[in-house]
Structures are given as C-alpha cells and as structure tokens.
Request: fold
Amino acid sequence: MKRVATDVGGTFTDLVHFDPEAAPGSSIVCAKVDSTPPGFEHGVMNALAKTQIRGEDMDFFVHGSTIIINTLTERKGVKTALITTRGFRDVLEIARGNRPDLFNFRYRKPEPLVPRYLRREVTERIDYKGNVLTPLKTGELRPLVDELRVEGVDAIAVCFLHAYRNPDHELAAVREIQRLWPEVAVIASHVLSREWREYERTNTTAAAASVQPVAYGYLSGLEASLADRGFSKSAYVMLSNGGIDTFAAVRNKGITMVESGPAAGVFGAATLGRLTGTQNLITLDIGGTTAKCSLIENGRVRLTNKYVLERTPRYAGYPLLVPVVDIVEIGNGGGSIAWLDDAGKLRVGPRSAGADPGPAAYGRGGKDFTTTDAHLLTGRIDPGHFLGGEIKVDLDAMNEAAGRLCKVMNVSREELARGVIRIANNNMVNALKLVSLNRGYDPRDFSLVVFGGGGGLHGTDLARTLQIPEVIVPVNASVFSCWGMMQTDLRRDRIVSVPLVLAVTNASEVDTTFRKLEMQLRAELESDRVDTAGLGFQRMLDMRYEGQEHTVKVDVPDRLINAEVVEQIQEKFRDDYEREYSYRLSSQIEVVNFHVAAVVPVEQVMPAKPGKTGRGVKDCIRSERQVDFGPLDVHRCAIYERALLEPGMLIEAPAIIDEPDTTIVVDSGRARVDDFGNIRIEV
Amino acid sequence: MDMNTVETVVHKAGFGRSEGVHDADPVTTEILRNSLCSAANQMKSTLCRIAFSPLIYETLDFAAAIYDEDFCMLAQAPSLPLFMGSLTYCVKKASDAVGGPENMREGDVIIYNWPFGTGSHAQDVVLVAPAFLEEKLIGYTAVKAHWLDIAAKEPYCTDTTDVYQEGVIFPGIKLYDGGEVVQDVYNLVMANTRMPNIIFGDMRAQATAVNIGARELQRVVKRFGYETFRTSTQRIYDHGEALVRRYFADLPDGRYVGEGCVDDDGLSDDKIPYQVIVEIDGDTVRVDYSHAPPATRGPINCPVPSTISVARVAISMLAGSGYAPNEGHFRPLEVITRPGTLFHPLPPSPSFLYGWPALQSIDAIYNAIGKAKPEAVPACSGCDIPNVYWWGYREKTGEPWAHGGGMPCGGGAHVRGDGTTMYHVSLAQSRISPLELAETKFPLIYNRFELAQDSCGAGKNRGACGIDISYHVTEECFGTAPIERQKTPPWGLQGGMEARPNSMTVYRPGEAPEKIGKATGLKFPKGTVVDLSIAGGGGYGPPSERTIERVYGDIADGYISETYARQHYPQSISDEQAA
Reply:
C-alpha cells in the first residue's frame, strides 16, 4: 500500500511518501515546501507536485494541520452565538472565577469566545439524573434564530445543563434550528463531550462552533483538490487523540484536530519505539517558541481530557473537553528571548522572537538575544552552516544584542551565552519532571527522544540532569510527524460521565455501559461507511477514591466484566494510584468516566534499513572547531556531517553532528548510529 | 478599657536583613529559585490531587510553602494568598512548640492550629515537616489547609464568643515521629470531627505533601551544595527586597488613612468602622492597625499573623512586579498593632470569621494608597467571601454532607480598564465548583447563575458586575451565611461610583422572605429558595468620561440597562438617540 502523509504548519508543509514496493533506498520520498495561508491546501498540492506524486500513487492519504489551533489562537473563527439553559448564559463569562496571575489585580480572564449579546437562553431544564424538570420550549427558538440571523451569525453552539446525561433537549433544539435556518452551522455539546462540568463543556462547544465552517471549508477544498489530482481512495485526518479519522467525520467536528501536529509527533516517537524495541520514552520537541514533552510507557501514549488551550502559569486559558495527547508545553524554544527583570535578574522566555524577525543572528532586525544566538556564540551551531547555509549569520547584530545584556550584568559574552543555555535547560528540566518524576515515573527507566529544531542541542544536557541513560535523535527528524501519522490507527474516543461506585455488585452495570458505548461507536463507524475489519476497543475508566476529585485513568480488559475482573480493576487502580501518589487506601473506589476508544488498525510499515558503503567514520568529519560545552568546558572537536553517517558508526564525545536544519551536541558519552539511521547517545 | 493606654507592637513583616551584595552566581541563583518553586508546586499538586475535600481541590483553601532553617520563606506555590502570608509564623510556632530543631528528626510531621499562632480559625490546620541533609536541619515545609470540621459548636460558626467554642486545639504536637504515625494523636484527631471519612483523606494528603516537599528540598540542597544554597537564597531575598523598596521609593512620602467597615460582629447589629494607616517613609512602608477598635465579642477578630499577612499580600500585589513573593519582599514592611484590638485579639477572643475583616482590610490598604497614587490601585471590589455553607443529612441514607466555598464577586475598575468578575485578591486561586457536580452530589438545584445587570459601579472605567445565584433546596438542610459588605457598598475611585452591595434572602415555603446577614444554624425546609446577590466592583474615574461606544456596548450586552445608563451616563443617551 502506497501511503502519503502531509503535515501543514504555519511556516512549512511537510510531505512523506512511502512505497513499500519501490527499490530499497527510494522507498521513502520527502518534501518540504512553504505553507500557503490562507488557502493551505495549495501548499499540499505544491508538495505533491514537487515530488511528482499523482493520485494513483496513493492508496492512503493522511493529513495533519495546525489550521484549527491557528484559527482559535488568532481569533479568526466565524461569528458565533450560544444558546443555553435559561438563567445560565454567563457560565461562559464567569468561568471558574480564578485568577492564576494572583499578584496582578489587573488580571483579565480569557475573553469569552461568544460575547454576551450573542449568548441567548431558552426555557428548559434537565436534572443530574437526566430527568426533565422543565420541558424545552421549542417555540422560543424562532424569534431567537431570527435575531441571530440579523446579527450576521455564522455558527451556533448549543449547550444545556446536564446534556451529558440526557441530550434530548439539545437534539430537539438543533433539529429546530436546522429546520428554521438550514444554512447555519450548528453544533451541540453532547456531540463533543459527554462529561460533566458546564463551563468546560460550554467553552468546548463555543470553540467548536467557531471553527466548524473553517474546518468544513478547508477539508472540502482539500478533498476536491485531491480528486482533481486523480485520488479516489481513503483520505484521513490526524486528530489530537493520536488517531486518524475520515475527512467526512472530521469535517463536522473540526475541533478534534486542534493538537493534530504535536499528537503526530508523539505517535511518531511511539512508532519509532516499536521499531527499535524501546517501549519507554520521554519525548521532547523543541521548536522556535515552545518546548513540548510527553511520556510513553510500554508503548502507550497518555491521553488527557483536561486540555486547556493557551494556558500558562499566569493565564487560565480555554478548556476544551476533547481527548488530547497529554503534552506539557512551556515557553522555551530556539527563539526565546533572554531578558533582565526589574531587579536585574537574567530570564529566558516565554517571549520569543519567532521566525520573524527571529534571533538577532538572522540579521532581520531582531534586537533581542535568544537561545539560538547563545548556541551560535558558544560554537555549538556552526555560523558557516546556519540553517544549512541558507542564512548568513549577522555577527554584528548578535554581538550587539549580547552586549546590551553583558553591560548591565557585567559579564562577558561567553558567560552570558552559557548562562542563557543553562537557564533554558533548567526550564526544560522542570517541564520534563512534570511528565515523569511528578507522576511517579523514574527517568532512569526511559529514553529521551528529541526532535524539532532544538532537540539535539539540549538533549544530552537534560538527560544527564535527569539521569536518563539514552538520547535518541531520530533519522529525518523534520518529517517525523508525517512518519507518525502514516502508522496511526483510525481511532474514535468516547468519554462519558457515569459516576458509580466500583464494587463487585456493579460488575454487570460496568459491563453493560462499556458494551453500550462500543455498540454506539461501531454503529457510528458503520454509518460513516468506515471499513470496520479489525475493529477493536480499548477500554479505560477514570477513577478515584470515593470523595476525591482528581481521577487516574486505568486500562480495563476488553472482555466480560464479572466480579473477578472488577477486583482486578480495583487492584490495578490501587497500584497505579500508589505509583503516582506513593500510598494506597482501602477506601471505596469511584468511577467518574467511562472511556472507550474504537480502533481500526492500520497496517504497520517497516522502512528499509539504509545500506552501507563501508565508509569510515573519519570520512564523515566536515571540519573542526572550538565549542563551549558549558559546565563540561571548552573543547576543540570534530564536526560530523549527519548525511554521511552509516549504521554501526560510533562517535566519541566531545563532538558535534550537523544536519541542515538541526545540530546534535554530543558532549558526553558516545553516539551510535543504529540500523535505521537513528543516532543514539549514551550520556 | 481605654485601648490607647496599651502599648503598640511593631512587627517586622520579613525575617532576616539584606546583606548587601552576595557573591552568588546569578545563573545558579535563578536555577535554584526555579527548582524551589517547582518543589513547592509539586507539594500543591500532590495535595490537590489526593485531598478529599472540595475546599482543598477546588477552592484551594490552603497554602504550601518551603522555608529555610531561619524560617525565611524560600518558595511557595500559588494558592490562597491570605494563608501564604501567615504560614511563616505557623512554622516558627510549631517548631517552638515541640522544643525547636534539637527535638526534631527526619520524618517528623507536626500538627498545629492555635489560632493566635496561625492567624486563622482553628479549622485551618497546619502540618510542618523539618527537612534534613546528613542530619543537619536545612529547612521546613508546611501546608496550612482548611479542614471541613474539627468539632466546633457547628461545622461553620458566626456567633461564637470564645476560641474554645470554635474547635479542638492541636498545640503543636507530633503526628508523625521519624516517619511513623503517632497512633494516639491520630486517634484523637479522628475522634474530634463530624466527618472523619473526609478528614482522614485530607490529613493524609497534607502529610504526603509536606513529606514530598521535604524530599525535594533535600534534593535541591544536595545538588547545589549547602554553601551555594545559602548564598544563593540570600541573593533571592535581596532581589525581592530591592523590587519592593524601589516601588515605595517612587511613591510620595506621607501618612495615608484608609477606611474600612465591617457590617457587624455576628452578635450585635452595630457597624464596626476602622482605619488602617499606611505610612510611606522613603523606601519603607508601615501599615498601622493600632487605631482599630477593641476586639469584638463576636468572632470577627483577626489574629496578628493574618493581620501581617494581609499587609504582606497587599504590598506584594502592588510592588512585587508580578513575582511570587519571597521573604525579601516583606522586609521593607512594618506592621503596627495594639494588643486587645480587632486586628490583634488576645486569647480567648473568638476569631471564626477572621477572614472577613482580613480580606476587607486589603481594600482598606488600597484605599489608603489610593490617596497617595490613585492609579496604583483598583477601586473597591465586591470584597467578600459570598458564601452559603450548607450541611445536613441525606434523606435516604442519613449520610452527613456539607458543601461550601466562596464565590467570585465584581472586581473594582482601575486606571487601565474595567473590572473583572472574579475571586477577591485574597482568594485569587479559588475556583467555582461546577454546578453540575454540586447538583449531583448535594440536594440543591440552581435556578440561575448569572451576572447581575446594573450591579457594577459606574465610571470612566466601570466595575465588574456581581453575580445573582438562586438555589432551590430539595431536601431539608441547614446553613451558615457569613455575608459581609451589605451595609457599606464597594467604593469607587477618582470620581467612580459605588457598586451594588451584597445581600441574601431566604424564601421558605409559606413564610415571609427573610434577609440574612451573618447567621448560623439556618434551617432550610425542603422547597426553600435562597437568593444570593453578590456585590459588583466600584468604578474608576468620572462616569461622564466614559465613551459613548462603551456605554452602548454595555447596554447591548445587557451589563447595564437603559435606565441605568440614563442615570449614570446622561452624556451618552440624548433623547434623539434613545428615540
């Protein structure tokens, strides 16, 4: 099966084509072209044209995109209204009332995604058991819809209290709105989330409505362009839950692709782990503005249903109740700016110089000293081959940016650069701790997979601090996400709040609930005409000790749940809980959410192993230079060209391995090139 | 007794003193600071995740922090600001109570809640763990958290007349000794609560949190070495001190009088006005509470550690440049109190509702500083912990239940913009419990939960709207309502107008509506409706300067009515426009 994966980012569009029948060495074709906002589908077509891939060369097309998250963060969604339960239109504005920036009395909460004049109420009420307290007054919708039409609204979000328990009123309201105004985009909360917490669910629905016409237009446009190119097979979209789904399904639920790109990266790492027999991984993706990390245990990627868009330690952000790969993101990347606070202390990030103007060394008018500048100054990045030689380093601009800080701090440029790198590393160590140590995982049991432009520059230092024994820099890291997508299974998650005590006497209720969810998912897939051959289910329960709030997600076996299995689940919960919180209780256990993932597996592919020419490792040395390794001192060391490296080669520290778009620092231990061309550094 | 004959007491609000330039590497210092903050945050997340009480995991009614061996605060997790400022004193008192460091060893956890040492009511229980490295004491970790019940005359009280009616006292005794639970103490604690099934979980969570903090502190000191740790932390304190001194040096010197007023003491109906005087003297600031009225018979007295805490919070908000404060921030601050008064009560004065005057006095301090530099502070907020504390026994099972937690209020407007509806500054991190959860767990139904039209203070920048909440009670239960700021509306600043005050009305089936101020033991028969009207925030600047666009925007959004607009913004609503 010939596969194509494309990944659209704000700046670049990546493409990977895999043909298992092609001659070894040419089975994988990659391309990178400029993204083409706002009509991103053109970039995809350009990438296909560049690689001369025709419609019939593709049996399987999978697509990831940042379009949804960009639409949300740039507030470019359509004009959206909210219809909600009478008496509760301000749930969206009052939110949870907290102010994370607690030493700032001018703190402003996130602006509600729907302004108050477009938040409308209808008479209806359902209680927590799903009983109707006040029937829906459908007749109230006509005048309301007329008003929204006059206001020029393009999408309507419908969210009623306790609709996660009983969606009848939402369904009736949506039907009526569609009858009255067939052209408007309308989405109800229960379609997106069956979890309680009205603010979070309302916000999710409002966000989903505001991007729905965007997603619909985008995916329809892309589908049409693909058809024009002669493509007639299945096209899929990469979702935030680390699965793929059909264009048809995602078109009406665009919000589910909000973290499509990062999810693909983490799943790419999981795939790499499977390939190389490394099942425990911590992933670290260092881009221009942020670093993102995640943890994979025994090949399983962790999902969260508590994702919050734009949250920082000082900003509450927008909660979205859609399953998303559990990623910790911090404001530290290559473009992060070094600055001095009011009392003269050195800080790095979260403000970033981005791609434009970029670090001072880009010479595009950037006046700020960034992490990338620090890497150049220490000699870790080769000024002669900056970004593969595409950019000529502006040393004057860089020195000037450094000079301003040095003068105030009274340190040398070298000391400044070392300091910036140490602080950036420490920020990232704290993020890595959040996904590992703080959840009871011992970093010594994991390998660190680094990717993104900055991964190789920081990886070994971070691994040493956390005592992670090995750093893996995958081959062809920049198309890593595409590689991940290609191997991703079709997946739909359904999470439903059904609070109950997990007791042996409840076994059959647990069993029935799971089966009901599975039947619903199967029916939905079939009605979407997805080929369900091989369909399997992953079952999970969000559980806690009775009385607690926070839950732990526990895997549940996919078989008849009887008293014995319930006891196993209880035991598994107590074990997982103890790992994370260091003790166990004999208290009752409560189930909050049932979580089922329907998975239709995609055939896994094995890339051909690169051949060997018998070249010696010395032949891969491009040059030598002086490099400042910070706490490990200054060394004159060899600079290797990654493109020349071959499986089995060993490189002793200190050394630098250069790629066109990234640099790998080997400052301790030694690096080995594995059978697939990945670089593995024992630190 | 003539209070003025009692000598005042001057409290240094920050421990230690600046040692000038420390020879510490700035980068190492920054990394150390970060590591300590991360350790404190780990304590917090542990506590939140494993606690049983929503007061901890939703309201964040707790503080978690790390101290050095001299009781100077190294780092704290963002949590309840009012607690954050008083925890230092708790650690010192707890240490003193067991006889100081020589009587402690690794694995000890001390339990302490004497209100005159913690600054709080007895429900706020502190656990303290010493941290050691190679048998040398290197610091302490502490968590102070609100416990749902510790055997006061009622789970929540508004009418106590001495501290002994307010709960059992733990005078600073070991709950864990060298890592082992002291069973006798544990049993005693469990015997003194109406809700042992919740307290047991919360206490466990709190102990786990302080132990994790101690382990992390040990790791950090080990990694950097004791000497580097000490010099770097001195540098951290100096940094905080420098920030705050710079801020006050820029304010004009002088004595500024801030006005505050508590509605009543819970027993009588008399208003209790008080003054807080802020004196700026170069780069030092003195907050003088010594003119406060005598301690009250009812439980609104604020013990000294919280009085100092309030001053600490107000000052860090203003002068800390947004950084989480450390000990150094507090060094430029002096607090003056007079023993036997509202802000320096002596045993056995009751203090169950200490939090209300405490948080109100933050607005009083802003009121004073507003006279020196109005643009530095916001107008008055709704300034209360609007809350009904519910409890009872479930109809079907007889299980005891309790539900409470403050609500957000309208924030005051400020020079840069309108106010925002959120929690009072002293409760900044609290979060509303989702209504869907509350309805599932408790016999309550919300009839509405919305912003209250016209509740905001008008102004060039307007205050935020308050909230109207209406509860329907579906099973007979009881309630306590400590609703403040009903008699004195939130004030405006620089010509801005005052906002709607708080109020609460109970509608029992077949009875006349009852207005509630502070009340304990309210009985709510099935079918009762309770309306809570939460105050808005004061305005900033004259309403005549508000632009027409903003006035019309507010009308379109329904934050204000047209009638209100005519009254407060006549410049915007001419008759032609209205027609």
Q: What stands out?
A: Chain B has two domains: 22-243, 378-579. Chain B touches chain A through 78 residues (CB under 8 Å). Chain B has a mean pLDDT of 91. The radius of gyration of chain B is 24 Å.
